[in-house]
Amino acid sequence: MAQTIVETLLENPLFRTYSFYCSVLVLKMMSMSVLTGLTRVKNKAFANPEDAKNFNVKVKVNEDVERVRRAHLNDLENIPLFFLISFIYVLTNPSVFLATNLFRAYTIARIVHTIVYAVVVIPQPARGFSFGVGLFITGYMAVQNVLYFLL
């Protein structure tokens, strides 16, 4: 009996690795919403009047909150591209060792990006370097996909 596509994917060790790192990145992105909320409460800096009213404060902008928000927005701009490009990359049957390390490095780079941007606030070039690592990895996989499917 023919296996379904899903069964075939689930048996593929690289797809399982891809699924693991994508899940870690989803949890990381979800944590950014919690971090934003906690930072708002800590600094009593709310964007909506109804939220500010609950804490007897006025609507205000706070740089700590904005840093967390910008880090989250950067995730929202970059991680979905990684999800798509890395899924296509898995379909090209790359080296398991290389692909696993690309997924791992990307995930670590995104976590480091958040830490140096929104948690510990380490000055440049730390944030730029961690962003660049992720950008390079996504670009590398995209080029490999183009080359694979070009022919």
UniProtKB/TrEMBL annotation:
GO terms for molecular function: glutathione transferase activity. Its EC number is 2.5.1.18. Keywords: Acetylation, Endoplasmic reticulum, Membrane, Mitochondrion, Mitochondrion outer membrane, Transferase, Transmembrane, Transmembrane helix. GO terms for cellular component: endoplasmic reticulum membrane; mitochondrial outer membrane. The keyword Endoplasmic reticulum applies. The chain crosses the membrane at residues 18-38, 79-97, 103-122, 129-150. The keyword Nucleus does not apply. InterPro entries: MAPEG-like_dom_sf, Membr-assoc_MAPEG, MGST1-like. It comes from the Eukaryota. It is found in: Endoplasmic reticulum membrane; Mitochondrion outer membrane. Belongs to the MAPEG family. Homotrimer; The trimer binds only one molecule of glutathione. Conjugation of reduced glutathione to a wide number of exogenous and endogenous hydrophobic electrophiles. This is Microsomal glutathione S-transferase 1. It comes from Rhamnusium bicolor. The lineage of its organism: Eukaryota, Metazoa, Ecdysozoa, Arthropoda, Hexapoda.
